[in-house]
Amino acid sequence: MPYPEQLVAPMRAELTSAGVRELRTAGEVDTWFAEKQGTSLLLVNSVCGCAAGSARPAVKLAINGSRKPDRVATVFAGQDVEATARARALIGDVPPSSPSIALLKDGELVHFVPRHLIEGQSAEVIAGELAAAFNQHC
Amino acid sequence: MGTFHDDKGALHGITVYAQAGDTVYVGRCDTLDDQRLVLHDADLHVEGQDGRTVDQYLQRSARFGIWKKHDTLIVPVAGLGPVRPLGELVRGGGAAAAPEATTTATAAAPAPAAASAAAAVAAASDAVSLTPGAAQEVRRLLVAEQRDGQGLRLGVAGGGCSGLVYKVEFDTRRDGDLVVPQDGFDVYLDRKSAIYLRGITVDHQAGLGGRGFQFRNPNATNTCGCGESFAV
Questions:
Q1: Contacts of B15 in chain A (CB under 8 A)
Q2: Is the CB of B1 less than 8 angstroms away from the CB of A95?
Q3: Catalytic residue positions of A, numbered
Q4: B64 CA: distance to closest CA in chain A (Å)
Q5: What is the rounded average pLDDT of the residues A96-109?
Q6: Of A127, B20, B27, B226, whose CB is crowded by the most CB atoms within 10 A?
Q7: Residue B85 is inside which H or E element, if any?
Q8: Domain spanning B128-231: CATH 3.20.20.70
Q9: How far apart are CA A137 and CA A131, in angstroms?
Q10: Contacting residues for A26 by C-beta, under 8 A, at least 6 apart
């Protein structure tokens, strides 16, 4: 059951205010994934405070670096259910996980950060690991 | 970090793994205390299942996560190895990456082997107890029988009029044993026996009217008159 929108609105805004595009519908997800050229980062957002609370600022920090994906988007697990399910189907053969971060290159998954690699980590640590992945793939 | 519920332990909310025998359990830790590990969004893997070893399963799970098969799994702590964050298998067990569990079952240590040994000792520390009389009798027998370096092994085996019988013998420590330190010797329990012996008190009654070593087992639902056989 989705949380009240007024509760999750700040969690959406934390990303959209940093230039992350939010995909709210399955159609928006299909359109975003249809553009395969280049590098794309997708954050599966979550209300989970202990993991998503680090994942959101981590993505914001990472995309402020000199090397970064061409496009950055997010879906909100548990809130935008159809969009999230569609995104998970298109990411690749990895278990559903929220929050999680997927980096794709030319439409193929090249780096994946599942929830358990976010839990208990600071935003700076996660951002550093994302930056390393950006340096390799972007 | 990682929890809004301090009463549920440092691993609450963290995806963990723990092994018992040939089975490994992976899931998001809800509760870890001296009785049980409660996992949500969990999976388990038995050695050789789907053609993969436990190690192969863990390596892939650590990299990509698990496909949830169970909403909740409740695993008895007795017989369970150390409970560790799954992420450690990717990042290593540094302090920043590894919240230390505060329960007796998950004392953290820097090296995996040491962690396993320390956890085995800690997990067993509340598993069995000996009365002063029983401990004194064990010490006397160890000296009398010249069993240097040995300890007391407690176990269970099938048999007896109530289904299970206690086993008591002097022995050295074996791999996988739970260890309960005593004054002057150690008590050893294999992990399967520990499930049945958790909370047991061993007493000793000496003298002509005494009955030797006696067992008070909170897990037993039925015992026979001799006190050497029980059911759970």
A1: 115-116, 119
A2: no
A3: 48, 50
A4: 6
A5: 95
A6: B27
A7: strand B84-85
A8: no
A9: 10
A10: A82, A83, A85, A86
B97 interfacial to chain A (CB closer than 8 Å): yes
Contacts of A96 in chain B (CB under 8 A): 65, 68
The pLDDT tens digits of the residues spanning B200-227 come to 888 877 765 555 777 777 655 555 554 5
Inspect the interface and report whether the beta carbons of B2 and A120 lie closer than 8 Å: yes
Q: How distant is the Cα of A115 from the closest Cα of chain B, in angstroms? A: 8
A19: closest CA of chain B, how far (Å): 27
Give the CA radius of gyration of chain A: 13
* ipTM value for the complex: 0.87
Nearest CA in chain A to B100: A120
Contact between chains at A95 and B68 (C-beta distance less than 8 A): yes
Chain A interface includes B92 (CB < 8 A)? no
pLDDT single digits (tens) A23-32: 999 999 999 9
Domain range list for chain B? 6-109, 128-231
Q: Considering the domain A5-137 in this protein, what is its CATH number? A: 3.40.30.10
Q: Which residue has the higher pLDDT, B111 or B127?
A: B127
In CATH, the architecture of B6-109 is Roll (2.30)
pLDDT band at A14; cut points 50, 70, 90: very high
* Eight-state DSSP code of residue A124: H
pTM (global) more than 0.95: no
Burial environment of residue B102 by CB neighbours within 10 A (0 to 12, 13 to 18, 19 or more): middle
Residue B28 phi/psi, 5-degree rounding, is -80, 120
